[in-house]
C-alpha cells in the first residue's frame, strides 16, 4: 500500500471518532446525531412493545443494530468529553456545565446513551417482548431505565436551549 494511501487511512481512522479538532459546529452536530439516534431507538422500542411490527426472534435484530449504533456514538461522545476536559471544563460539576452548556449537553448525551444501552441489554436478557412489556407497565427495572433515558434526553434538550440562547 502506498504511503500516501496508508497515511490517508490513518488520518481517516483518527478523525472517525472525532478525536482532535472538536469545534462548536462538530459538537452540536454530534449531540444532534445522538438525539436523533435515541429518538429512533425509542421508536423501535415502542414499535416492539405496541406490536406495530412483528418480532420474529428475541432479542430483536433491529434493536440490537440500534444498540451497536448507540455504542459507537458513545465512543465518539467520550472523545468529545475528553476534549472538554482538555479545555479545562470540569464536567462533573453542575455549575461548570451551566457555564459551558455544550459540555452539559454532551454529558447528558453520554448518560442518555449509556442508559439506553443498559435498557436494551436488559430487554435482551428477558425472555421476550411480553416480559419487557410487563415490566414496563408494572413499573419494573425496564420502566425505570426508560424514564431515566427520557430524563437525560430532556436534559440534553435543556442544555441545547441554553447553548442557543447564549448566542
Give an overview of the whole structure.
There is one protein chain. The chain has 167 residues and is mainly alpha-helical. The protein is built from 7 helices and no strands. Helix 3 packs antiparallel against helix 5 (101-125) and helix 5 (101-125) runs antiparallel to helix 7 (141-165). The longest helix has 26 residues, at 24-49. The radius of gyration is 18 Å and the shape is elongated. The N and C termini lie far apart (47 Å). Residues 1-19 have low confidence and may be disordered.
Strand residue percentage: under 5%
Structural class: mainly alpha
Morphology = elongated
Reading the helices and strands in chain order gives HHHHHHH
Q: Termini distance?
A: 47 Å
Number of helices: 7
Helix content: over 70%
Low-confidence stretches: 1-19
Would you report the number of β strands?
0
Radius of gyration using CA atoms only = 18 Å
Q: How confident is the prediction overall: mean pLDDT? A: 89
Largest sheet: none
Amino acid at each position: 500500500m502506498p504511503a500516501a494511501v496508508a497515511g490517508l487511512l490513518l488520518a481517516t481512522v483518527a478523525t472517525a471518532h472525532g478525536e482532535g479538532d472538536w469545534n462548536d459546529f462538530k459538537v452540536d452536530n454530534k449531540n444532534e446525531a445522538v438525539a436523533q439516534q435515541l429518538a429512533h431507538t425509542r421508536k423501535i422500542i415502542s414499535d416492539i412493545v405496541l406490536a406495530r411490527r412483528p418480532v420474529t426472534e428475541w432479542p430483536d435484530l433491529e434493536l440490537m443494530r440500534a444498540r451497536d449504533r448507540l455504542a459507537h456514538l458513545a465512543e465518539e461522545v467520550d472523545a468529545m468529553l475528553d476534549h472538554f476536559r482538555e479545555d479545562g471544563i470540569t464536567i462533573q460539576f453542575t455549575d461548570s456545565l451551566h457555564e459551558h452548556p455544550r459540555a452539559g449537553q454532551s454529558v447528558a448525551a453520554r448518560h442518555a446513551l449509556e442508559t439506553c444501552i443498559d435498557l436494551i441489554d436488559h430487554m435482551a436478557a428477558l425472555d421476550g417482548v411480553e416480559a419487557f412489556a410487563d415490566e414496563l407497565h408494572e413499573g419494573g427495572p425496564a420502566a425505570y431505565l426508560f424514564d431515566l433515558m427520557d430524563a437525560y434526553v430532556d436534559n440534553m434538550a435543556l442544555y441545547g436551549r441554553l447553548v442557543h440562547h447564549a448566542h
